[in-house]
Amino acid sequence: MIKITAKPIDVQKVIETASSLGAGAVNVFIGTVRDNAHQKNVRWLEYEAYEAMAVAEIRTIIEEAAHRWRLMGWAVSHRIGTLKPGEVAVVVAVSTSHRKESFEACEFIIDAIKAKVPIWKKEVFEGGEEWVSANPHMVINSN
Amino acid sequence: MSSLNVKLKIFGAARDIMGGREILIDINGQRVEELRKTLLIAYPKLKELNSLLIAVNQKYASEDDLIKETDEIAIIPPVSGG
User: Fold this and answer.
1) Which of A141, B31, B55, B56 is deepest in the core (most CB within 10 A)?
2) Which residue of B has its CA nearest to A56?
3) Which domain holds residue B33?
């Protein structure tokens, strides 16, 4: 399952989707919204995605992970829209025979998602906002 | 060299610079490289971004790739999912 969704992510459902009776390990990464960045208070994040391409890129990443670690099940769900501190932004779950490959595969998938998949977030602070990683360092002042 | 009129999908920081989610633009040439040159002349602030990738039909393109007016072309500023 690959999902880009504006609704809150059902973490349990992602885990169930990735689970397999033949697997001895399920590894789950949950990315959440921090209330701080660059010593400033984050009020909320705005996520957006180029949805069709994001799904295709995640599929390519999963295919590579499945080939390298023999995944027995997997699921990825990424949230878009406005997210407040504490909310779940992304969930990656994989199941494998043993724990070691489950850790490695899960880390590979979330690292690749952050590096390659066309999804963006803007941090909204008190008195400013900034697209994360867009510029060497810049905060656009709002009124 | 022929010119093309292409429609661009624009995201994130690039949208703030270019001022819209979709823009029509004329490019002199038929390759991604020429589209990039045209964009940087029309929107010089794009040079301030840490990276600027171009996707053609939902795949990251290289500078030599040919584009057609019917292609789905997207401007991809630095990604920050997760």
Assistant:
1) B55
2) B58
3) 3-76
| Chain A residues within an 8 Å CB radius of B81 | 47, 49, 54, 78, 90, 113-114, 117-121
This complex has an ipTM of 0.94
In a domain, B27, yes or no: yes
* Interchain proximity B82–A110, CB inside 8 Å: yes
- Do the domain assignments include residue B59? yes
Nearest residue in A to B76, CA atom: A118
Rounded Cα distance between A41 and A64, Å, is 37
Determine whether the interchain pair A118/B49 forms a contact, defined as Cβ–Cβ distance below 8 Å: no
Q: How many domains are there within chain B?
A: 1
Domains and CATH numbers, chain A: 2-131 (3.90.1170.40)
Starting from the edge strand earliest in sequence, which strands make up the sheet with A73-79, in order?
A2-5, A73-79, A88-96, A25-32
Domain presence at residue B35: yes
pLDDT tens string B55-76: 999 999 999 999 999 999 999 9
The minimal CB distance from A134 to the residues B13, B58, B82 is found for B13
